[in-house]
Amino acid sequence: MSVAINMSFGIGVKEDEMNGASLPTLGVDWSARVHNTLYILARGNDSDKRPTTPNDNFNGMNIAGTNRPFVNGDFSPQFSEISPANATFQAADGRVIPDLAAPAQAIRVDQLGTDEFFVTGFGTSAAAPHVTGAAAIVQQLRDRESKAQNQRFGADSKQHEVTKAVLMNSADKLVDDGTIEVDGSKVRKGFLLEMEKTITAPPPRLGVLGDNWLKSPAYNNPDMPKDPFMGVGAVNANRAVKQFKPGQYGAADPIPAVAWDYGQLVADATQVPINKYKFEMPLAKGSFISITLCWDRRVTKTNVEGDDTTWKSKDQFKSEGLSNLELYLMPMGETDLAKAVAKSVNSKYSVKHIFSQIPQTRKFEIWVRGALPRGVDQRYGLAWWAVEAVQRD
After folding, report:
1. Alpha helices in the chain, H assignment, sequence order
2. N or C, where is the chain less crowded by C-beta within 10 Å?
3. Does residue 365 register a pLDDT over 90?
4. What gap in Å lies between CA 157 and CA 142, rounded to an integer?
């Protein structure tokens, strides 16, 4: 990734204008692809009087804000609750706006060059820089591995789609300490992918925790890759490093439990293209798997005053549409999509996400499948995190 840019502003529009067609939104999506830039945007606050663009973008990330929940007469030390002070608007086409959440209230801000500081009130403008910083940490690891000539950290490791997938897939949802129950049974410690805290939705009232991911409308919902409040969870830079560190494994490789890829679906007029990622080892029954797929909407520009990489005020953007990629977790060797263990298939999104419990110990494979408009090949970032049934030596 050449650049990560933090954006903490919004341009007020009417609800029906949150359709991905505004100048700021088209500009973000065009620049993300052309300049290989990850735009990280504040999601917006409840005090905003109306929806704001470019939060209806496809190629960046929108960041909601967390605070410390007030429970049992005291504040938790963790930023684990989605604040009710977040904006609630979504895109006009029904897409959920938030991608991730990050701390947004009572943040200490030091005055550079002095011993003075101030503490913020609530604002998603304080949340977005946490994610921008996590992106920088991921790329710092990339630079170190590349200098060491690690072949799994080549040019593909700089792509913004990869960084986006890594940050989203490593987000916290449910604490991995053996206390979380699913269908009446506690999930074994280590089976929730080393997540460090449980994230909850805005509370129904002070002193009461909101619902966690297991009660989210996005949980095991193939048509909703993100929760309306949480996105896919709270950013965790430590887990992002662990997600990124194993390096790149392509569809031609037997894949480890944790890794990523910058892949490509090649347009084929005779059949729907599929890339299959096959786990080398069986996955453990009862453990969870997280998979995130990210790709760009293609926005082009008619050059009137600018050039292919520079925008001028008379230039015109045009959306060329969104490839419809789908994400599946399949039993190894299975060919019938109806037998998928989990899937994420809503055609409105440029993100697909699976977070699901493994039903039995066996080998699995990840499928990236897509309909490609105009016969154009589609690049994508993919990250996965699972638990092997048999630990390696």
Report:
1. 23-34, 124-147, 160-169, 237-244
2. C
3. yes
4. 7
